[in-house]
Amino acid sequence: MTVIKEIEKFHDEMTIWRRDIHRHPELAFEETRTADFVAEKLKEFGIDTHRGLAKTGVVGTIKNGDGPSIGLRADLDALPLDEKNTFEYTSVNLGKMHACGHDGHTTMLLGAAKYLAKSKNFQGTVHFIFQPAEEGGGGGDIMVKEGLFEKFHVDSVYGMHNWVGLEAGHFGIGAGPIMAAADTFDLIINGKGGHAAMPHQCIDPIIVASQVLTALQSISSRNTHPVDSLVISVTQIHAGDAYNIIPDTVKMHGTVRTFLPETRDEIPSKMLKVSEGVCNAMGASCELNYIHGYPATVNSITETDISAKAAIDLVGEDKVVRNPTPSMASEDFSYMLQARPGCYVWLGIGTVEDKNRFSLHSSNYDFNDHVLPTGAAYWATLVENELQNS
Fold it and tell me: What average pLDDT does the structure give for the chain?
């Protein structure tokens, strides 16, 4: 019997797991209940279980003879969001919601663990990595720094994210950068405040800031190679608190997204140069605080081919999109891919045109339970393909 048929036997059980996790969302490094749930299931399956990496991380290990070792990763945390859904398993934790599908990711990896613990149709070692704090906490980075791959050796590591925009049960798999590096910045424009009726006596930082905002876009349009992706978005502008006062300062905040490390390295100096040029021309000054966030998620070629073969074996070539357009969103699985070769794939859960299908991070989002067996079977197929019995 095929992997998917075996896993479909406990589809209802997986759905119960997923909805229980959805109902009890927890934020970064607070995933104690979720970690307890995962650890209990792993032990129930007879899998050796380790806890404590990055505070709430869980790693389960199945060793079946000698052979290569691979890691499969899912994320545990939810988002600080009020859920608007009204179904019976809606969040009971006010201001917290599984709006990115990590409840589904965790469930699919548990499903694969249950199947593989019973079948053991592979030769080698599988580590099931349940990582906390993907949503801004950098849990992947912390797990790596705390010795994840020293404690649990892997030759390669794999991740998966549900994807709105792909047909349910389809996969998107590509080598190279698949998700962007995500940095943030704080830019302060210093002018000279005064009476709003006497602007000639002032250096209006709001006017300067508006010019800086426009000039920053020339970095991507005129100072970066046309085929290199770069996004600079100013997402907040704060200035003044009165109708008749020109303020002294304007505070601007935003995000920068890139794929190539060399492009990323150049952005802080280019932003400062452009901002200072505008400010100097208008008699103002500026201060830039540039914060590096998650690096780009970059899939290695060999492991991408391995992932694609597993997906094709499972669902057929017509349901696997090779080399999809990369996303400018970010993902801290990137830190694991910096430490080991691997691949991060997308599993489609439907499009926003589908009834009741909302985008990631929406307060109306819900994971598509129909794809739970597909995701779990992908993991199992990947393991059985890569760790073939001799």
Answer: 96
Contact 272/173 with Cβ under 8 angstroms? no
345 — pLDDT class (breaks 50, 70, 90): very high
**CATH class of the domain at 3-177+298-386:** alpha beta
Tokens of 128: 């099931």
- Residue 390 pLDDT > 90, yes or no? no
State whether residue 160 is helix, strand or coil.
Answer: strand
Task: Give the pLDDT confidence of 192-210 residue by residue, as tens digits.
Answer: 999 999 999 999 999 999 9
Q: Measured between alpha carbons, how far is 161 from 343 in angstroms, rounded to an integer?
A: 11
Q: Is 126 within 8 Å of 382 (Cβ atoms)?
A: no
The answer to whether 387 touches 124, Cβ cutoff 8 Å, is yes
Residue 244 has pLDDT above 80, yes or no: yes
Determine the Cα angle at 61 with ends 57 and 65, to 5°.
Answer: 165
Residue type, 186: D
Alpha-carbon gap, residue 97 to 78, rounded angstroms: 6
CATH tag for 181-291 (out of 3.40.50.970, 3.30.70.360, 3.40.50.720, 3.30.750.200): 3.30.70.360
Query: Count of CB atoms within 10 A of residue 272's CB?
Result: 16
Helices marked H in the chain: 3-8, 11-23, 32-44, 102-119, 139-145, 148-151, 205-222, 261-281, 301-315, 333-339, 372-386
Helix residue spans in 134-225 (DSSP H): 139-145, 148-151, 205-222
* Residue 17: both structure tokens together: 């797991």
Residue of 219, 185, 182 whose CA lies nearest to 287 = 185
- Domain-by-domain residue ranges, the chain? 3-177+298-386, 181-291
Instruction: Residue 373: name the closest of 109, 97, 49 by CA.
Output: 109
Q: Which residues of 82-99 are buried (b: 16+ CB within 10 A; e: fewer)?
A: ebebeeebebeeeebbbb
Say if CB 73 and CB 129 are below 8 A apart.
yes
Length of the chain: 390
| Spatial separation of the C-alpha atoms in residues 377 and 382, rounded to whole Å | 8
